[in-house]
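Complex 261.
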Amino acid sequence: DAAAGDWSTIEVSVADRVGTIRLNRPKALNALNEETMDEVVAVATALDADDEVGAILLVGSAKAFAAGADIKEMSSKGLAEMYSADWFRRWEDFARLRTPVIAGVSGYALGGGCELAMMADVLITGEGAKFGQPEINLGVIPGMGGSQRLTRSVGKAKAMDMILTGRHIGAAEAERIGLVSRVVADEELEDTAATVAAEIAAKSKPAAQMAKEVVAAAFETPLQHGLVHERRVFHSLFATADQKEGMSAFSEKRSPQWQRR
Ligand code: CAA
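Predicted structure with acetoacetyl-coenzyme A bound:
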């Protein structure tokens, strides 16, 4: 059971083929300390390997998805310690999960919280959500991918503005600049995010994983290489039972019964 564990900073459940991870450090607005990082990455890795899980949903609380990396934990550290621990490297394991990840963001998604949300494949947000990279106001810069993922996702103009001023942006601006997938009423956020996760989880898992793989590759590869990669992955799906089933079901005007192989 991938969800089993004695977690102290998160809550985990599995239902409808969706593994849900809820950040749960309410007194610190879900600030991401080392323990949270270890717990989120460990459980997400286990969920990723579970054939019965087709999507991973990451949520926080109404007030905060996550207000950043834990400032109090980091404040007294020095260069040698940060460097030798390669602080935040472990989050790269989260970004490299192969199962689709949906983030449901309500309230603050700041610093590492914004960066974690940007690691998700689909980002659903409540209309009251606030995104920002306020590290400049702490005398540092983003360290969990903000300068790279934010810039690739919204372009230089908005990334420089957010990272150099540290200002928070609301959900409407976040949607306008392409940072988030959908904005819904705050009271509908949890239901909508869970519904989208269940919808994705119900699909053919190989197809969903390969779809994620090829979209993610668009950020890493030149266009011609990415196009060839996409075609080869597309071709490889013709070796799956789900391709035969999906295309037969269309012709027979019925719903597909995925075997997920
Ligand atoms: N780290 C540690 N503790 C945090 C925290 C953080 N990132 N964010 C909030 N908290 C704590 C507060 O210290 C406070 O604890 P105490 O009650 O013990 O004082 C508690 O959570 C509640 O926070 P506030 O009283 O500040 O709540 P508020 O509603 O007045 O303000 C807020 C909310 C605007 C989000 C404010 O808490 C804030 O600005 N937080 C810090 C945001 C930030 O700078 N994030 C970037 C962190 S660095 C980083 O993430 C590096 C990276 O690239 C990965």
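The mean pLDDT is 97.
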